[in-house]
Amino acid sequence: MNEPDYIVIRPAPDLPEGFLPERENGRWYDRADMPQAGVESSVDALIRYGGGVAVATDRFEVRDYDGAVAEVYEVRP
User: Fold this and answer.
1) With helix as H, strand as E and coil as C, how does the chain read?
2) Per-residue pLDDT tens for 34-62?
3) Do 6 and 64 meet the contact criterion of CB atoms below 8 Å apart?
4) In what order do the strands lie in the sheet with 46-49?
5) Is the pLDDT of residue 28 over 90?
């Protein structure tokens, strides 16, 4: 399966309140704009954010206005 062109940031269910700024919750990022770390699978990819990590999940979201698909990354402490 091909990776979608985008990722979207979401808080993990157990993430402490206020850990993830509201402006980041639901923010979409284009994978083409992200540095390549030599990771072969998005499931193994981690994004560091404010002392936590955003971990790839097996969930996806579809953007209403254009139908673009993003893989959900959950921020965990």
Assistant:
1) CCCCCEEEEEECCCCCCCCCCHHHCCCEEEHHHCCCCCCCCHHHCEEEECCEEEEEEEEEEECCCCCCEEEEEEEEC
2) 766 544 444 344 566 567 888 889 999 99
3) no
4) 28-30, 6-11, 69-76, 52-62, 46-49
5) yes
